[in-house]
Amino acid sequence: xxxxxxxxxxxxxxxxxxxxxxxxxxxxxxxxxxxxxxxxxxxxxxxxxxxxxxxxxxxxxxxxxxxxxxxxxxxxxxxxxxxxxxxxxxxxxxxxxxxxxxxxxxxxxxxxxxxxxxxxxxxxxxxxxxxxxxxxxxxxxxxxxxxxxxxxxxxxxxxxxxxxxxxxxxxxxxxxxxxxxxxxxxxxxxxx
Length: 192
Prior knowledge:
This protein has helices at about 15-35, 35-45, 45-65, 70-85, and strands spanning about 110, 125, 140-145, 170, 175. With about 190 residues, the protein is mainly α.
């Protein structure tokens, strides 16, 4: 894999996967504009750009070696995203639906560019050290373990760990799962 912050242009090889990804992207983007219009508009500008970017992302996931994405998981993810009430809307990256985050076939420390390639469901990528992409994740990383809720997820003595679906790593600790709109929330380590 290329060790750079800028991937080489991606060419879709599987036309069936491409068609499935375009259909998925349209459904996802329509729902994104329905549920989170301002954020989606700020992020993508218009529906066509959202659809194009999400279809490309999807095609990359589907064609990644050892990816857990398949026509079945993609279809299940699309159904879950569309069925999710707007009060529970989150970006695709944050949707706590297992079908949208399938586990792949690669083991700990094997190279990856997508979490869907890893058995753990998490690909860690170091930040770029120099240049205009400084701070952005490198294209290539390595499959890494997933910590439990409230466990350490980043420490100088440990590799970066992923957090369980529906939670994030904040100040070195996995926090979550997050409450949906209208649900009670409590004090957590992010307030400290």
